[in-house]
Amino acid sequence: MSSASILEIRHLRTVAALRDTGSLVRAAQLLNLTQSALSHQVKLLEERYGGPLFERKSVPPQFTATGRRLLELADAVLPQVESAERDIARLSQDGSGQLRIAVECHTCFDWLMPAMDIFRQRWPEVELDIVSGFQADPVGLLHQNRADVAIVSEWSPSDETESSLASLTVRPLFSFEMVALLANQHPLLSRHHLEAADFAGQTLITYPVPDDMLDLVRQVLRPAGVSVPRRTTELTVAILQLVASGRGVAALPLWAVKPYLDKGYVSQRPITAQGLTSRLSAVWPARAGGRNYLEDFVRIVRETTFVSLPDIELL
């Protein structure tokens, strides 16, 4: 079996991804492979070692002795490989830099802070910071050299001139479902999902952002000609408190509110029969292409959020 005659780094990444994600489907997403390609790779490894790596019917996978030994090797080798790759990248640079992050979403901090902690461990010589305050136009800060990378949702190239568009690098991060949040006794809970007309007459509780930055308004309400009054607050927990007390409804990422839903603090319904999907991307000036830590920052964000947050899909 020549294709599996040598144990390769990609094989170790495969078993580590299976453990970290808990399924073949999500491991394939994390590794940017098709499920069939990942299954084929696992099959070759199992043929090489003469037995299964994990129990197929267990969720999450329960690894066999062979699988556990490969995991031990992965945990020992992969950090060294990644550390060496970063060291090599540093040799082509001055060994230092800065990464000022501008965000336009309040809930970004729930996943951004853990990713930043990992980044600091891997790139201690890079000065890492968040541009203070909510940013309605984070991409504009890039052009003003006031930020090094912007985290944006539904960023459209049409927002940029041709010259400025050519000067930007865009990396998709992940997508997630936005859900409608309702008080536990709200009449709309009788519906399987909410359409635009269901929001008519409701007060929409949101962060203090322009209408164009609200997925619910931009993708659902405005196309249907539905206009609703808004009440704003800076904090996610304040939004949930207002919803729970019957002061209005809200639309937030499912991953951001799942702990409150699990505790029965509020209830949720999908928005439209197809669901309402939001997407995040990282944008930075193309002139920064030589800074390898930018690409590594994106990789850290994608991997940590995909493993730690529920219902995340990589883009």
Automatic annotation (TrEMBL):
Belongs to the LysR transcriptional regulatory family. CDD domains: PBP2_MetR (cd08441). It is found in: Cytoplasm. Its main location: cytoplasm. Keywords: Amino-acid biosynthesis, Cytoplasm, DNA-binding, Methionine biosynthesis, Transcription, Transcription regulation. GO terms for biological process: methionine biosynthetic process. It comes from Paracidovorax wautersii. The keyword DNA-binding applies. It comes from the Bacteria. The lineage of its organism: Bacteria, Pseudomonadati, Pseudomonadota, Betaproteobacteria, Burkholderiales. InterPro entries: LysR_HTH_N (IPR000847), LysR_subst-bd (IPR005119), MetR_PBP2 (IPR037406), WH-like_DNA-bd_sf (IPR036388), WH_DNA-bd_sf (IPR036390). This is HTH-type transcriptional regulator MetR. Residues 7-64 form the HTH lysR-type domain.
